[in-house]
Amino acid sequence: MSWHIKTFDELTSLEMYRILQERTAIFVVEQNCPYQEVDGKDIASYHLYKEEEGQIVAYSRLLPSGVAYPEASIGRVIVKREYRGKGLAQELFRKSIEFIQHELKEDKIKIQAQHYLEKFYSSYGFETISEMYLEDDIPHIDMMRITTS
């Protein structure tokens, strides 16, 4: 298995297809949540993913500041069902933060997190900055991580 990080233009059609296939399988089908998964932000984002035997097994979308929020953001964080519980989410999230800090030179990262994952994201230095709210009938919170030099 190997990690990749690519801009939208660097992704092949097949890679983007597999990413969208996996995101839809989790966010739309598994979570039974019909919504506009392809939202126009992929083009301006970086795509971090781990691939095994032609399958996307872990993925996150890294958004530079100004794309979704004034701050940089991490979104669409997924681990394929069969690969959960093996530490991939932790590895994925650590790599996501490192890329935003070191490559994009951003010191603030804002995320829109499913409420039940608050403790997971808190373990990476994110602090809750909103009340719980429903997004597509799923409890969410906004969280922020600020790195000080």
From TrEMBL:
This protein's superkingdom?
Bacteria
Looking up InterPro entries in the UniProt record yields: Acyl_CoA_acyltransferase, GNAT_dom
Q: Which part of the chain is the N-acetyltransferase domain?
A: 6-145
- Name the chain's protein: Protein ElaA
Q: Name one GO molecular function term.
A: acyltransferase activity, transferring groups other than amino-acyl groups
Q: Which SUPFAM superfamilies match?
A: Acyl-CoA N-acyltransferases (Nat)
